[in-house]
Amino acid sequence: MFKKVDLSIDFLGIHLDSPFVLSAAPPTDELEMAEHGLEEGWAGVILKTTSVEGNPVELKNPMMSSFGPMSRKVVGLGNIDLISHHHIDVVSSRVEYLKKKFPNKMIAASIMGASKEDWQNLVYRLKKAGADLIECSFSCPQGSMGEEPGKMLAQSIEATEKVTRWVKEAADTTPVLIKITPQVTDIVEVAKAVKRGGADGITASNTIPSLLGVDIYTFEPYPSLFGSGAYSGLSGPAIKPITLRTIAEIAKNVDIVISGNGGAFNWRDAVEFMAVGASNVQFCTLPMHYGFRSIRDLKSGFEHYLKEMGFKSPSEIVGKALKNIKNQEDLVNPKTRSDIDLDRCIGCGLCYAACNDGGHMAISFDSKTRKPYVNEEKCTGCAMCMQVCPVDAIKMKEVLDSNEYYFVERR
Amino acid sequence: MGRNLDLTQALIEAERCLYCYDAPCEKACPAHVPIPEFIQSIRTGNLKGSMELITLANPSIGVCGEVCPEEQFCQSVCTRSAIDYPIKIRELHKFVTDNVKLTDLELQLPPLNGKKVAIIGGGPAGLACARELRRFGVKPVIFEKKELGGIPAQEISKERLPYNIVREEAKQILTLFGAEVKDKKISDLQDLLGEFDAIFVATGLTEELELDIKGVNLQNVHTARKLLKTIKSSLRTDVGKRVGVIGGGNVAVEVAAALKREDPSRDVEVVYRRGLKELKAFKDEIDEALELGVGFQFLAIPVEIKGENSVEGLVVRRARLGAPDESGRRVFEEVEGSDFFIPYTDIVIAIGQKAQEIFPEIKKTHNGLIEVNENFETSVKGVFAGGDIVRGASTIVESVSDGKKAAIAILQYLQGGKNV
């Protein structure tokens, strides 16, 4: 009944009916869940990271905690999860089953090994089962197995390159993604190591090691298991800005396909991920919070955005923002001033408080009219007032060659 | 969202507050409760800090949390209304006072400085004044012949204002702030001035205005406040099955609601000269009365109460509304020849209160109220006054505000006019 935009993409030779896939995480740890997700409309699944039989995986619950404002919205989700307790025998049979049931969806799996033999064994068995793609977790926040247990593999340039080579050697033509961590000194060096190792792409990036919080009355960390806790992998909207930077930095410096992961929570975030260089976007916290049905608005919002912008395919937006991301010293310095729309202003005075206590004391407040006024001499155009205005009544304006230029930033 | 917020609801509501600079809600509050500040403290989970802020500003926090007409004060000017709807300030206020007790906080009062102030009347203004004075080292002595708490204690129905809240608050003023109560009627101010350094008169309005029509002396013609006191004391009234309440203020609506609550099968009607828009009662009280099934006879002027010994009914004359008067309220005009009869078993007179004739040496206004200057000083040196005896019928929070401000003025007076 409504005209549609084709959301499909080609991702490393795999046809995806949209760029949105379920990441290797709790939502893909059970067969029924993976089936449900695909039935709801996700373009593919990456089954939760598995390992060889005999590798004990002891999960500790409760494993989830979150932080947000006092009204407890999940802004950041913390997880002390490990890889799946289902081993490769179970996972490979699931791949086989899902591939038969959903031939047009991407059925992928994620692996973690301790030795060359393990890594390659895992790859061989997934290939045999018919996996469309293999993702390698080099970045579980609870640490890797093998040479330096506890340390994330992707924190070592040498190990990253070496293990990538082992995996790709075994995978041959099956596409391989290496899932890295942003918790490194130089993300570009890691990405280059992945490329040297021969992987087809990078998943940027995993959850971020964190400590979700501490109960200030008992001094127990969150999540507390009889008083004790551990560092969590942090996901959700809280880490989106970090992931955006990670993707952008890789995309600007290394010619490799990127799968965006970590903090995308809606279609707008997905557009941003793709605009800084991701070819597709993986989701975990969103379905964990709102369920697999969240794919409906993801696709619908994304589709309407593409239509509105005149894009014919999702691939057209990949990397479109990169040319605009520069070093601070390379930016021009516009002579901006705060421009307050007094008709929209509701007189809360927050811009006054922000400017006087956190800006350049350029805004005055008339208590009688309850309206703020800008002293253009003192205003430097820092935009703090614009950030706090609850009704978006403030813009930054520059008058240049008798033309007005506005700087309006979405918060 | 009901009146009693739980923690999650309170946090969500507190998140909505913009934390305005120079907040209009705070200015509109007669007690100048620092509203954005106490809400910010709820937001961070600092409920005790929030309680401290509210308590410092308003000695009558529990009572105000229950019955303050927020739509008339703080919430009416909330900036958030420009976005969606005002913050539920009274509910947040009540959330704090329900969850933190004054006794949970550590009070630190200065030692007594030897000064003593007599407070005549133990209602909201008197209690507020007593607490403020003690905060600054002055010993307050309250003279009250009835129960402490004033109108809130005696007349506001227990459904609207639980009795224990008023009693608890009055008790705290006595125990925590060391106020003393004397059950003694004061007849001579000069005698008292010999014993005390200053006097604060807060006797309120104790007399009811009388209606000057035929039949007011019949049996089954009642006065509103007496009925309210009876109901508040958990006694049953002897009011019959069809009642007309004459008046349009808070007391009229309150007594009508109380009679309906006492016996839901009873027909109760408020008989008022103007229309719904002109009713002086607070909106939430009117809404509550309507919900209880109280009826209204608008544009109805009582002309005569009919009956032999007992009431048989009321003759009323139709009114029509004319142009607005100086206060902006539309005046009513009688419609000649429009008299009609409503059969009532009982009539309740609730047309307002007046001051008792007290202390002839103090200068009064033409309404019999005490005249004060901006420092709450009466015409007699050392004697201050506030609350309804100065304002006429007003709200609890306004009386509290008077008591607080008068205490500061008294302290300045005691220090020879120096700022405290």
Structure report:
The complex is a heterodimer of chains A (411) and B (420). With 411 residues, chain A is an alpha/beta fold. In chain A, a hairpin with a 2-residue loop joins strand 1 and strand 2. In chain A, helix 3 packs parallel to helix 4 and helix 7 crosses helix 9. Chain B is an alpha/beta fold and 420 residues long. Chain B contains 15 helices and 16 strands. In chain B, the strands form four sheets. A five-stranded parallel β-sheet of chain B has the order 3-2-1-4-16, sandwiched between helices. In chain B, helix 7 links the parallel strand 1 and strand 2. In chain B, 45% of the residues are buried. The mean pLDDT of chain B is 90. The chains are: A alpha/beta (411), B alpha/beta (420).
Overall mean pLDDT of chain A: 94
Task: Give the low-pLDDT segments of chain B.
Answer: none
- The counted number of beta strands of chain A is 19
Distance between the termini of chain B: 43 Å
Roughly what is the average pLDDT of chain B, rounded to an integer? 90
**DSSP E strands of chain B, number:** 16
Q: What proportion strand of chain A?
A: 15-25%
Largest sheet geometry of chain A: 8 strands, parallel, barrel
Oligomer: heterodimer
Query: Outline of chain B, from the CA principal axes?
Result: globular
| SSE class of chain B | alpha/beta
Strand order of the largest sheet of chain A: 3-4-7-8-9-10-13-14
Q: What is the overall number of helices of chain B?
A: 15
Lateral strand order in the biggest sheet of chain B = 3-2-1-4-16
Low-confidence runs of chain A: none
How helix-rich are the residues of chain B, as a percent range? 25-40%
What are the secondary-structure elements of chain A, in order, as H or E?
EEEHEEEHEHEHEHEEEHEHEHHEHEEHEE
The biggest beta sheet of chain B is recorded as: 5 strands, parallel
Gross morphology of chain A: globular
Cα separation of the termini of chain A: 35 Å
